[in-house]
Amino acid sequence: MTDTFTFELVTPEKILVSKQVAMVTVPGGEGDYGVLAGHAPMITTLRAGTIELFDDANAPATERFDVAGGFAEVTQTRCTVLATETPKTVAA
Fold first, then answer.
1. Domain containing 18 — which CATH number?
2. Fewer CB near the last or first residue (10 Å), C or N of the chain?
3. pLDDT at residue 88 above 50?
């Protein structure tokens, strides 16, 4: 069983996603990065790109969201993305 952590995607209007995931890839301001449970804490800007959610780190993405920008906060047990605009859902 893969370790999971909480992922939240927050828009100016509401919390769009709040769920347990095994891995997330995020379009960071300095390049894409992956987040797994136990990740080192950090705060980063986001550039326009696609966030991918994985229920299993060794399987294809289960959900994708296009974001225009924003910020992300990562801790050992949580990844929170604050999107500047409501993201578009992309077929996984």
1. 2.60.15.10
2. N
3. yes
- For residue 59, give every residue at least 6 positions away whose Cβ sits within 8 Å of its Cβ, in sequence order, or none: none
Q: What is the pLDDT of residues 54-71, one digit of tens each?
A: 999 889 999 999 999 999
Residue ranges making up the domain that contains 16: 5-90
Q: Which of these, 88, 69, 81, lies nearest to 7 by C-alpha position?
A: 81
CA separation for the pair 29, 73 (Å, rounded): 13
Reported pTM: 0.91
Query: Nearest 10 degrees: CA dihedral of 6, 43, 31, 40?
Result: -60
